[in-house]
Amino acid sequence: VEAFEARGVGDRQHVGNEFGIERGSDSVGSGSGAVTALVDGDHLMARPATGQLIAPKGKAKSWAIRFRAYGKRHHVTLGKPEDGWSHERAEAELRHALADVERGIWQPYKPAPVEAPPEEPTFHEFASEWFARHEGDWRTHTQTDYRWALSYHLLPWFKDHRLSQITIEEVDRYAAAKQREGVLSNNSINKTLTRLSQILEDAFEYGKIDKNPARGKRRRLKAEERSRPWVEPEQLLALLDAADPYARPVFATLAGTGMRPGEALALPWRGVNLATSTISIRESKTSAGVRQGDVPMGTAEALRELKARSSGDPGDPVFSNRQGRRQTKRNIQQRLKKAIDGANSVLADAGIEPLSEEVTPYSFRRTYSSLRASRWIDAEGNMRPGDDPVYIAEQMGHTDPKFTFRVYQRAVKRRERLSGAHLEAFDKALQWAATGRISPEPAVPSLPNAALIQGMPG
Hints:
It is a single chain. The protein is of the alpha+beta class. It has 17 helices and 11 strands. It has a 4-stranded antiparallel sheet with strand order 1-4-5-6, covered by helices on one side. A 3-stranded antiparallel sheet has the order 7-8-9. Strand 2 and strand 3 (43-44) form a beta hairpin. Mean pLDDT is 79; it is low at 1-44 and 437-458.
């Protein structure tokens, strides 16, 4: 130590710089005491922590400190004067930092790692998870109905949307587009909107969106007057295929002749003339109901198959159970429910709206009216008009044809709005329901792009 002191102040300055001691007006840890602390007998000790204040100047608007620690130079920004930082506060911070370095506990500032937010799922991804999460709680019919709404309506429109991109405006745009298509009724479109709202409600509860844009009555179309559901022509053949052997002839007769369920179940074999394709109805609730009805090709085929495996005695009921007794309305209703479940799986796969669980045997009367009133295309590509509304009313045993006219007005244009699987299934049902009658009305000119029904009688 004495040898160092003997070299004078200038030599001490040289030694200080040699061992990395910061000098300056704002240096800390300098002086002859710091220099002498570098020597321990004949060995040099580790370089002490030193530091410097950096005042705000020019573009640098904040106080900062700079110091050496663990063999490296560190620069730490403290804060702006307007945030309460001053020379005294900065100097105290530097002293604290150097003390921590001396004790070996100082660590450079490292911002806490920020996890990247998870990628927002698309509607397709979230809806698939939603379906898998809940399907175990649903009946088979419900699963089929929900799958139809998703696969053929909601996903084609929303599948690539991020959840936050499904806005109120986008929901309304979807509903308006469905209305313009003209395939679904307002009530059916509202059913798909209800499914959309269910899915987005889960997304809201999970914190993935701020609100459910499909919730509320204002997102729904004006509901149509509720009426008894029926089997549309494009749904009919799938239902008949799904029915069991005892129920299929009943449903075929109801859809093909327009008979009331009670009239059909009371029908004896003596009232069926397969040679002339007619049925004589003697038991009816009205006088107009006592009538002779025409039997279409599809119904006639079903009755021939039924007669081949039954006694066919004139007085026996056409539709009997395993014990040979007349079928009951309750039994037929139960068999219809089972057939609907089976048909809906096929319809959903084809993208056709599933049948309502509320369909009853009586609903086939509306089906009959639609089949008879609908336009069809013959083998030459000519558009043929449907049957006359008065004839349809007589066949159904109506005293007032007003109902028939309402159905007629809807049916004559409905086929023109259908396409794809809907149109194909619709035309097959018309072919099934052909009676061989030639409408007295003139044919509409040929449509070059219309789908043909091979084998349809002229």
